[in-house]
Amino acid sequence: MKQGMEWSIALFLVLVGLATGVFAQDGALTPETVGKIRSEFKMDAHARAIRNALTSTGIRDIAENRQILADHENTFSHKIKTKGISNQKGSGRCWMFAGFNMIKPVLMNNLELDDFEFSQIYLQFWDKMEKANKFLECMIEFRDRDLMDRDIVFLLQDPCPDGGYFENFADLVGKYGVVPKEAMAETASSDGTGMMNRLLGRALRKHAVELREIYEDTGSVKQMRVAKTRMMAEIYRMLVLNLGEPPAEFTWRHKTKDSGKKDEAKAADEEKNENGDEEEQENKDKPKDGYEVEQKWSELRVFTPQSFYREFVGLDLGEFVNIGDDPMRPKGGHYEIDLTKNLYDGRNMNYANVGVQTLRDLVIKVLLDNKAVCFDADVSPDQDSGKGIMARNLYDYESAYDLDLGLDKTKRLLLRDGTINHGMVFVGVDLRDGKPVKWLVENSWGSDRGKGGLWTMYDDWFEDNVYKIIVHRDYVPEEILRILEQPAQKLPVWDPMW
Questions:
Q1: Distance (Å) of CA 238 to CA 88, 163, 459
Q2: What sign results for the dihedral spanned by CA atoms 82, 85, 88, 92?
Q3: Residue range of the domain that includes 6
Q4: Same domain, yes or no, for 57 and 114?
Q5: Other C-beta atoms within 10 Å of 112: how many?
Q6: Quick one: CA dihedral 105, 110, 113, 117, positive or negative?
Q7: One domain for residues 244 and 335
Q8: Per-residue pLDDT at 263
Q9: How many whole angstroms separate alpha carbon 306 and alpha carbon 175?
Q10: In a shared domain, residues 102 and 40
Q11: CB within 8 A of 122, min separation 6: which ones?
């Protein structure tokens, strides 16, 4: 009986201790702390209004800066000629679409076309093959490393992802060429890559296990590569079933300008109007469909993807360089991020680190020469997809919550609040007194988002969220080219600039 009372008292003391925080670990959220927070919170008029709004609608609708919307307009002092908005849909191919959107105006101008689109799925197929090969080669190269090694963990998390950078696009085009959309059309798996990527990842992880077992049993890298050839054949089969087989050659022709026939038809119509005959009177109420002009086509020819690119685009994409605004590191450095090559024999993403003003100056220089510019940015903050606006403080969350939420560009990267997550193309600029006020951006989210697929980026958003641009070496000052000639400092693949 006495022992039972002692146990009861001990239990009571434990419960009291827990309740009062005596046994709480330092740093725990104690009842006293919660009580203090509750007692100090005041539901004032501002808080009540925001709570009422947030419980019935989203924070973005409440916080959108109406003054920016009121001042917004879509005029630009300079635009390059481009037409047709592409749509990456449910895939992470923005870098590839941006690359195509940069070279598309070149082909359209060369052939005097009003519209054209490359086959993104064609390059996507070979990108997946190259990524699978890179993954398996890395498993062979890292055969002696523990599976908890950070590089291996990174590769195993997503063995065959969608993402990439301009260097990857350039390497793929250089190796495999390009084809028009008519030669290889999109499929459900190219538009929405989630399940395809998941199953490709499962197959590649299984292959990784097998490769390590082969090495453990034989110690032979040669045997691992023999097995890898069979594994790549399996990946090829999976890709063909999802995406179709890419053409080794194809036939193609394009519409050509035939202004002569149109002029003849117009002249005949004008002569008829001058005569004012009865036929015109009889037909005056009939719908006018315009001039029916016979469309002229080029000769039907056979191309390989490589010959098609050489003849109609012809750009040496290896001559384009990556210029970055990395706020975390000293300017004037050359940096390379490891394991970012999509081709095992390709190039990692690398950049010369300069100030954001240099990025502005270079983009203006290229746009005024009527060429598009690829760039990489963080599209998470301050952009309205419905209206096609990117502007600093487009959403005033601080006023809504009555808090200071400000982080500068450096801290946002270092603390993983900011990230480089999307590639797009500059196609215009609005200059006032020689300085950019806003930029015209071609996106790859379809024509039903933004303003017909285009975004207006205000210059303050450029400063906050643009991290890299890609321009031809001919536009780059010598002092920046010399930075790129320096040996690059290699950064790990988990660096914030990736």
A1: 21, 19, 45
A2: positive
A3: 2-21+28-65
A4: no
A5: 10
A6: negative
A7: yes
A8: 46
A9: 8
A10: no
A11: 176, 178, 179, 183, 184, 246, 247, 305
Closest C-alpha among 74, 81, 85 to residue 372: 81
In this structure, are 96 and 187 located in the same domain? yes
- Amino acid sitting at position 83: K
Verify that 157 and 194 share a domain, yes or no. Answer: yes
Tokens 């081709």 label which residue? 343
* Residue closest to 169 by CA, chosen among 310, 339, 320: 320
Question: Can you list the alpha helix ranges (DSSP code H) found in 291-355?
Answer: 305-312
Residues 225, 334 within the same domain: yes
Q: Which residue has the tokens 């997946």?
A: 128
Q: Provide the sign of the torsion angle of the four alpha carbons 87, 93, 94, 100, taken in this order.
A: negative
Q: Say what the pLDDT of residue 82 is.
A: 84
The answer to whether the beta carbons of residues 125 and 243 sit under 8 Å apart is yes
Q: What is the CATH number of the domain that holds 457?
A: 3.90.70.10
The pLDDT value given to residue 8: 54
Tell me what pLDDT residue 24 has: 62
Number of domains in the chain: 2
> What is the predicted pLDDT for the residue at 189?
98
In sequence order, what DSSP letters do the residues of 400-432 get, joined into one string? HHTS-----HHHHHHTTSS---EEEEEEEEEEE
Per-residue pLDDT at 258? 63
What pLDDT, on the 0 to 100 scale, is given for residue 83? Answer: 86
Task: Tell me the two tokens of residue 36.
Answer: 């203090």
Give the whole-angstrom CA distance, residue 468 versus residue 420. Answer: 9
Low-confidence ranges of the chain (pLDDT < 70): 1-24, 258-294
Q: Which pTM does this prediction carry?
A: 0.87
Residue 377 counted as domain residue: yes
Give the alpha-carbon dihedral of 304, 124, 197, 339, to 10 degrees.
110
Q: Which residues of 121-146 are buried (b: 16+ CB within 10 A; e: fewer)?
A: bbbbbbbbbbbbbbbbbbbbebbeee
User: Could you tell me which residues are beta bridge partners of residue 320?
Assistant: 472
